[in-house]
Structures are given as structure tokens and as C-alpha cells.
Amino acid sequence: MNQSALDPAGDHAAIIYQLFDVFLGITGFFFFLVLLFLGWAIWRRDRDDDREQKLRVGVAGWAALITIGLSVLTLGSYFADRSLAFAGAGQKPLRIKMTAQQWWWEVEYQDDNPSKTVITANELHLPAGRPVEIELASDDVIHSLWIPNLAGKQDLIPGRTTDLALLPRQTGHFRAQCAEFCGLQHAHMALDILVETPARFATWYGRSLQPAPVPVTDEQKRGYAIVTGRHCAGCHAITGTPAFGTVGPDLTRIASRATLAAGELPNVRSWLERWIDEPQAIKPGSHMPRVPLDTDELHATSAYLETLR
Ligand code: CUA
Known about the structure:
five-stranded mixed beta sheet; Immunoglobulin-like; 39% helix; binds dinuclear copper ion; elongated; 8 helices
């Protein structure tokens, strides 16, 4: 999994990276020059030759160089800004609404046809080559969405919406992270970004529109009863079941996600059970309460949740 602004996989990140290179080159050049002059001044400090003439030439040359340097930075910024504004223009974007919560990400794929809305959490599946427009909101405090391989940071602010445009180019698995201190578990507020070929994305989208799979074995059925009939359903939703809470992440496809608890744990059975059993030990301060379950009930619950893919 990759999380690096120096390895762009999308147009916006590539434009910012080019601008970074320009700034690094120009400022590095001037830093080198300053050191050079400093060394030269120390070396020549005792010589007493025609200083005034040299000073005049030196200052004029220095001013000219600075003017050129600042002009390149200004023009570079201007053209980077224009390129960012026009990246992906003219293509119909994929529209997504993301809402930051303490401490996870709610993701809603929007469509003109409301029955084609897909809701998930802590992951973004994106088709390569298609522009994406994300509307950003927050339900509690200020967060910031940062997908370094695809774009710069954008804040999510309670009471107003902001937006972020992406144009992924390379398929791959990337990591994104909340980039604004938002409380105890700020460091554990990551999300998985999966850039896929358009065909794979369409497959994922089609599957996500289906209701959750029906439990088959007795253990899965017991788990279904626990998840939809007891405390879990008060906070979590599973499409096609009586669970429709909206406080926590949607669980309809939880087994297909790469990670649990907003990027904190690998999505394997042992961690799933520990997370359900001791949420406050794994993520202190999170809004996930401990649900009293005995060992059999815990196994049944994880057996059912594992069918949700
Ligand atoms: Cu959300 Cu930091």
C-alpha cells in the first residue's frame, strides 16, 4: 500500500508534484548561491581591492537573479493552478459525498437515479481515467482529507461543504489519512483508496447495489440475529436487513474491505472479533461501545459479518 505525495498516480497530484520540483529547483539553486557567496566573503574578508565597483555589480546581479527566480515561481504557481482547475474538464465526473466522523469516513456514491446510490465506509473505489468530484462535509469537528498519491489536502468543516477533485490515472492500492488534528483517534483515521480499471470498478459497483447476502449456516443465522436484533443495529446499517443505524459505518460489504476501524486493523477474523470484543482497548475514545457477547456469540457474529462481501 502506497502513501506518498512523491509518487503521483493522478493528474492533480502530478501537477502539484511538478510545482514542487520547480520550487525545489529554484530555492535549492538560491540556497547554493547564498552559501557560495558566504564562503567567498569569508575567504576574501582581508583583501582590500576596489570594493565599490564590485559591490554595485554584485547587488545588481543578485537583484536580477532574485527577480527571475521569483517570476519563475509565480508563473509556475499560476500555471499549476490553471492546470488543476482544468484537469478532467469536459468529462462526466463520478460524484461522491464524503462525511468525516470521529473517527471514520462515510462514503456515498451519488447517481441521478437514487436507487443506484452506494454507501460504504473507510474505502474509496475509483475507476482509473475518470474524473471524480467529492463533496466533503463533517458531522463533528474539522477534519482534512489527504490522498497524497492523488491530490492535495482539503478540509472538511462542520456546517459547510467543500470539494475535492481527483483524476486517478494508475490502478493501485493507496492509503489516505485525515490530516487535521480531530481528537483522540486522529492518527487512526485512515482510508483505503482502490483505483481500479473501469471494468473492475463497474463490477464492484454492481455488487454493491445488491442487498446483503442471506446467512446460510446455523452459526451465520445466529450471528445475523445478534447483529440485526441487538445492539449493533442501533448504530450500523446492513442493506436488506432490519439494521439501519447511521451512527457507525455501513456494514453491508464489510467483509470485502481491506481494513477495519478506519485503516487501523487488517480485516481478518481474529482482529474483527477483538475489535467487537474490546473496541475501547483498540481505539480508546471511539464511539464504538463494548457489546457484551459470550465467546459463542462472538464467533457467530464474526461468522455472519464475514459473509458480507
Ligand atoms: Cu479526522 Cu484528524
